Amino acid sequence: MRTTVGIIGAGPAGLLLARLLHNAGIDSVVLESRDRSYVEHRQRAGILEQGTVDVLRAAGAGERMDREGLRHDGIELRFAKQRHRVDFPGLTGGRSVMVYAQTEVCKDLIALQLKEGGPLLFEAEALEVEGAESGRPRVRFRHEGREDVLECEYVAGCDGFWGVARKAFPAGLSRVFERTYPYAWLGILADVAPSHDELVYARHDRGFALLSMRSPSVSRLYLQVPAGTDAEAWRDEEIWDELERRFETDDDWRLERGPITQKSVTPMRSYVHEPMRHGRLFLAGDAAHIVPPTGAKGLNLAVGDVVTLARALAHEKETGSPELLETYSTTCLRRIWQAERFSYDMTTLLHTSPEDTPFDARLQLARLGRIASSRAAETDLAEAYTGFPLDV
Fold first, then answer.
1. Per annotation, catalytic residue among 100, 201, 222, 328
2. CA 59 from centroid of its chain's CA atoms
3. Among 97, 262, 133, 276, which residue's Cα sits nearest to residue 188?
4. Catalytic residue among 204, 273, 297, 351
5. Is 81 a catalytic residue?
6. Is 301 within 8 Å of 335 (Cβ atoms)?
7. Of 137, 194, 292, 293, which residue is the catalytic one?
8. What is the pLDDT of residues 344-374, one digit of tens each?
């Protein structure tokens, strides 16, 4: 099998890259180790930056998002029982975010790929990337019980942290930067209307809490818990009681309860692999970087990567110049490190840590008070949350 771009992984990064390449007249083949149902139902991110929304619309994948997604023009910060709303459009010149789950993005892109794009092979496990430094790299994969080879001009590793693409980088070339946090998120889905019409980020002495949503009738909520927590160790009533404590305010706001349909624990870590390019192999998304979910940046960073890569491949096709491909890693990493910085700042601003002292707690409150009282500080948060420019 031969193609111009071999794409490993049919998450949002790989699927969007395939769509962007299709629109640019560049052929590709997507290899995905899981089956279609798994890809379309794995719960991940749900907040789309303004730039991500714009890219999906321009790619022809925004119709259902615009119909069913929930535009949000701000978030609420809670601390010391006080509430402060951050107005995104007013602080950023009109930008907002969209609540639209990654599962739905994948469904939309899969439908487009199967209807209009190149081959998309489910249950096709990539085994190894060979010849990344040559003019014809190859991806060995297993599909329908037999091994095969995909010959490419370029390979895009969109196969996540545990995938094979990053393993093709020579050990002497790779540099890793990471931090592991001593806490995690216990997340729930509940069949109850959201208790607020925008996301609520709560800092509490007992730990962080987040009120989010998947639809007007389904709430998504999170509690900070110790790393390694077993989700099933928490009874439903205990979860609601703890959420109520952490979201408490001085006014008459109430948290609505409902049946919990799903529980999971999300570990918290920061990770960056440099560089993101080795010869004709390019990493994108979680294969190259991970952020704690506090800043809602994971999916959006993946979109930034593949937009940059698609532009570089289209430029090479149109001009014969590999210049943008050669600077792909540098271009992406500028944006990635800003997102890592913001995600770290949001995480340390809102979470308690086992080694925190009363001094640390006071600093958190002072930082939150600064955001609530300074338009400059509030603008910095709003600009970062709604998204860094895709061409930075």
1. 201
2. 19
3. 262
4. 297
5. no
6. yes
7. 293
8. 999 999 999 999 999 999 999 999 999 999 9
Annotation says 297 is catalytic: yes
Is 154 noted as a catalytic residue in this protein?
A: no
Peptide bond connecting 259 to the previous residue in cis, omega within 30 degrees of 0: no
pLDDT tens sequence across 73-115? 999 999 999 999 999 999 999 999 999 999 999 999 999 999 9
Please say whether the beta carbons of 46 and 99 come within 8 A. yes
Catalytic residue among 72, 196, 278, 351: 72
| The pLDDT of residue 46 | 85
**Three-state secondary structure readout of the chain:** CECCEEEECCCHHHHHHHHHHHHCCCCEEEECCCCHHHHHHCCCCCEECHHHHHHHHHCCCCHHHHHHCEEECEEEEEECCEEEEEEHHHHHCCCCEEECCHHHHHHHHHHHHHHHCCCEECCEEEEEEECCCCCCCEEEEEECCEEEEEECCEEEECCCCCCCCHHHCCCCCCEEEEEEEEEEEEEEEECCCCCCCCEEEEECCCCCEEEEEEECCEEEEEEEEECCCCHHHCCHHHHHHHHHHHCCCCCCCCCCCCCEEEEEEEEEEEEEEECCEECCEEECHHHCEECCHHHCCHHHHHHHHHHHHHHHHHHHHHHCCCHHHHCHHHHHHHHHHHHHHHHHHHHHHHCCCCCCCHHHHHHHHHHHHHHHHCHHHHHHHHHHHHCCCCCC
